[in-house]
């Protein structure tokens, strides 16, 4: 039924390679099928003005797609002088998703910026960015702990994200681009490894869905995030 030949509840092949850049405090390359995203984390001894003096840390994100990450060249947003609405939406999603898994008191009054650069896109770039972004963030925090700047780990539960949808009338896990472009319903689900929900984005794209179907998609998403969490842990221990 699926263009890739995968089972309905089967993820694309996923790999996470850590330490891929020299200068960032945390970095990884995450590959989810043919979607490849470079994630880097940068530690700064400052926070936004609205939390200055509060003792709380902050995690934020930036997101971008390289000009030939897709089938035809897209113009760099910097050359247009502003970010597009899709880019702003996605980087806000990444930031608030990662913050949901952070004890900001334990992090202390510092900011970590997670940059997610899409090298190649084939569906699910925001989900791959969140999943890889958590690994980069974790690596950066480990450096803080090793230096004694943070005494207790502010990242206890991994955060992952996966897409699910209804394609050709079937509930499917981890949509690639051919499925995403044809799905009657698609959604992005962000969860912790322990199954706590952070965010769910579901919408009909020409077809409505039932409450039972929504539950089925949530079940698929939970399975996918559990698999991603195992890969995140394995990458951290590699």
Automatic annotation (TrEMBL):
Domain of life: Bacteria
Any single biological process term in GO: tRNA processing
Cited InterPro entries: ExoRNase_PH_dom1, ExoRNase_PH_dom2, ExoRNase_PH_dom2_sf, PNPase/RNase_PH_dom_sf, Ribosomal_Su5_D2-typ_SF, RNase_PH, RNase_PH_bac-type, RNase_PH_CS
Keywords: Nucleotidyltransferase, RNA-binding, rRNA processing, Transferase, tRNA processing, tRNA-binding
Cited SUPFAM superfamilies: Ribonuclease PH domain 2-like, Ribosomal protein S5 domain 2-like
EC number: 2.7.7.56
Catalytic reaction list: tRNA(n+1) + phosphate = tRNA(n) + a ribonucleoside 5'-diphosphate
UniProt GO molecular function: 3'-5'-RNA exonuclease activity; tRNA binding; tRNA nucleotidyltransferase activity
Keyword Cytoplasm set for record: no
Coiled-coil ranges from the UniProt annotation: none
Exoribonuclease phosphorolytic domain mapped to chain residues: 10-140, 157-224
UniProt-annotated binding residues for phosphate: 86, 124-126
Signal peptide location: none
Main function: Phosphorolytic 3'-5' exoribonuclease that plays an important role in tRNA 3'-end maturation. Removes nucleotide residues following the 3'-CCA terminus of tRNAs; can also add nucleotides to the ends of RNA molecules by using nucleoside diphosphates as substrates, but this may not be physiologically important. Probably plays a role in initiation of 16S rRNA degradation (leading to ribosome degradation) during starvation.
Quaternary structure note: Homohexameric ring arranged as a trimer of dimers.
Family per similarity comment: Belongs to the RNase PH family.
Protein name: Ribonuclease PH
Organism: Roseovarius nubinhibens (strain ATCC BAA-591 / DSM 15170 / ISM)
């Amino acid at each position: 039924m699926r263009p890739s030949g995968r089972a309905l509840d089967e993820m694309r092949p996923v790999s996470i390679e850590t330490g891929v850049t020299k200068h960032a405090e945390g970095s990884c390359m995450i590959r989810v099928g043919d979607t490849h995203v470079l994630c880097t984390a940068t530690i700064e001894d400052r926070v936004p003005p609205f939390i200055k003096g509060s003792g709380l840390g902050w995690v934020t994100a930036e997101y971008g797609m390289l000009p030939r990450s897709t089938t035809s060249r897209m113009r760099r947003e910097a050359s247009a002088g502003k970010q597009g609405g899709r880019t702003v939406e996605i980087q806000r999603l990444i930031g608030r998703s990662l913050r949901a898994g952070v004890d900001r008191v334990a992090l202390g009054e510092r900011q970590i910026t997670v940059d997610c650069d899409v090298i190649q896109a084939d569906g699910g770039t925001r989900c791959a960015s969140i999943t890889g972004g958590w690994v980069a963030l974790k690596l950066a925090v480990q450096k803080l702990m090793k230096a004694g700047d943070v005494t207790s780990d502010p990242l206890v539960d991994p955060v992952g994200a996966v897409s699910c949808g209804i394609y050709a009338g079937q509930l499917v896990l981890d949509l690639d681009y051919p499925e995403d472009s044809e799905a009657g319903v698609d959604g992005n689900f962000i969860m912790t490894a322990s199954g706590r929900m952070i965010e769910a984005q579901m919408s009909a794209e020409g077809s409505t869905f039932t409450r039972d179907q929504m539950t089925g998609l949530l079940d698929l998403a939970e399975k996918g995030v559990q698999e991603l969490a195992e890969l995140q842990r394995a990458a951290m221990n590699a």
